[in-house]
Amino acid sequence: MYQYPTTSDELYHYGVKGMKWGVRRARKKLANATTSEKRDKAISSLNKHREKSSAKIDKINKKTAKLEKHLEKQQSIDNNTKTRNGSNNQMTW
Question: Which among 5, 13, 74, 88 is placed 20 to 30 Å from 30, CA to CA?
Answer without folding.
Answer: 13
